[in-house]
Amino acid sequence: MKEEFRDIAPYDDSDFKSYMARLVKEPGLENAISYIMPGADRKQLTDLLLSLNSKAEFQQKVMLTILSLIEQKTTSGVTESGMDRLSPDRNVLFITNHRDIVLDASFLGLALIRHSLPAQEVALGDNLLIYDWIEDLVRLNKGIIVKRNLRLTKALEAARQLSGYIHYCIAEKHESVWIAQREGRAKDSNDVTQESVIKMLALSGPGDTLAARLLPLNITPTAISYEYDPNDYLKASEFLQRRRDPEFKKSQRDDLKSMETGILNFKGRVHFSVGSDINAELAAMLDVTDKVEAVRRICAVIDRQIHLGYRIYPNNYIAYDRLEGSDRFASEYSREDVEHFDAYLQGQLDKVEVADVTAEERGLMLRDMLEMYANPLRNQLIAKGEQAR
Q1: What is the pLDDT at residue 187?
Q2: N or C: which end of the chain has fewer CB within 10 A?
């Protein structure tokens, strides 16, 4: 490991056992395991963790079991398409839409392992590393630390460091990497690549133009589709609190609740659609020296692939028709689907813990949730040239 990346990179396997020995002593880890795996034999699990020698062993012998259990208990199955575009001897940068804080990257890793491919390294914001033991767990599980909330000079230094590490990871460590297309989740599910992410990635790499510096990353847009978003009511609650107070900011406790809710609550069907790398499009832009234009075009290419890759569920069609006051997609769902979705939405709204919610505010939150489910379909229609009306 290059020294310049040591404070953000996953722990080296040479240090794995010492960090794991520290981690297993943490009461927080024991509480988390009890929450996810009630009834697990604490001593047996500790002995297993202490017997491991590497991040790959940790993922194969522990995380695979935990993620499979989460899949079994909280989804109707995790499926994937486009995996044949990947190969063990070619590393890529997965850029995906962002729905769940933890499971977006984790379920992708699960899919890779099931296809006999190594799980990717994962870029994760340090605002989520609420406790030291969580950082240890993340970095033992191939996590890359993304430094956030820094002053301008430090932010640029951190962006250069992160960019350098991602390039180093793919070119020299021969590891694939996952990064979300934007900082934080798209609360309304309107997935658009943040230009700053592309600019950060282009801070490193060979070549004189932005496209040239991105080519070695083998950027591969990947779409994630959840039938149900367990955090939908928490996102609607956040919208409500921001309507009441434009300065409202989530607390660390809010982030922790979002992580727990996303992991433990029902998600229905989950699908990953791995797209084609964008190298051909980048090659066509090698002579584009206008960085603003290059970034705009690259974001558009990524967005289109993600939007085309969505798996659309009855909920999405119902939400679209409800908001548009139409029956355009009535053939895609049944009366039972509508009744089930309506009951689900009302049940989620009943979980909102904000005080003194008025009938008008509840109606606005319902609309917010419908937008979350309609926007993937809207974006897919636009990507297909079937303009959403």
Answers
A1: 86
A2: C
